[in-house]
Amino acid sequence: MATKEKPTRRLQININKTFEVSSIDSSAVEEKLFGRADKEVEDDDGPVVFICGKCRLPIGDSMSWDGSEDDQNQIKLKRVTNNVIIGKDTHFLEMNKQSACLVVDLICRSCYSLLGMVYTSTPRNLDHKRSTFCLSVASIDSYVLGSGGQMLAAEGPKEQLVTLEYRHNVEQQLAEMKMLVVSMAQRLEEIEAGLKEECDEA
């Protein structure tokens, strides 16, 4: 009898070990499959609006983003709003001995602050700066659309559940209103008929 019990115990131990190794934690699977996607959704910010750092007037947004120039502390936009005035006077900008450029100023229409510049003429190594609006990071500010977290509680009458009793009451009220309108119309007709008779007798 003892020799028969040993294989059974070994088989049972092997089965238990097999299930222990192959058991899967559902929370780990959810984190593996959905955790990364959730983080990506949370990190996906809305459009950014760029505003004048002094008067807070909107001057552009990230939908027209064209890059940044870290060495010049600038961002580049393909388009700006009408709140930005493009200067008419061209002046000389010498970044270094081999990078002399001609630029015009970008000015805020409201407070006339200097916001940045447009490169009208550049050496070949700076051609990527032309035909873009280069805004100085020190002169602007920004905010993300939809980033506000404060909300007001919704106010208003609570919705009435449509039950048979509620429907019956509504239909009864409509019927009474209809009868009232009909009786008023009949009364008006009687008054008009009486007035006509009085006019004819006169």
UniProtKB/TrEMBL annotation:
The keyword DNA-binding appears for this protein: no
GO annotation, cellular component aspect: chromatin; chromosome, centromeric region; nucleus
Keyword flag Cell division: yes
InterPro entries: Mis18, Yippee/Mis18/Cereblon
PROSITE patterns: MIS18
Coiled-coil intervals, chain numbering: none
Biological processes per GO annotation: cell division; CENP-A containing chromatin assembly; chromosome segregation
Subcellular location: Chromosome, Centromere; Nucleus
Keyword annotations from UniProtKB, A to Z: Cell cycle, Cell division, Centromere, Chromosome, Isopeptide bond, Metal-binding, Mitosis, Nucleus, Phosphoprotein, Ubl conjugation, Zinc
GO molecular function list: metal ion binding
Top-level taxon: Eukaryota
Domain Mis18: 47-145
PANTHER family: NEUROGENIC PROTEIN MASTERMIND, PROTEIN MIS18-ALPHA
Role description: Required for recruitment of CENPA to centromeres and normal chromosome segregation during mitosis.
Subunit structure: Homodimer, and heterodimer with OIP5/MIS18B. Identified in a complex containing MIS18A, OIP5/MIS18B, MIS18BP1, RBBP7 and RBBP4.
Protein name per Swiss-Prot or TrEMBL: Protein Mis18-alpha
Organism: Poecilia latipinna (sailfin molly)
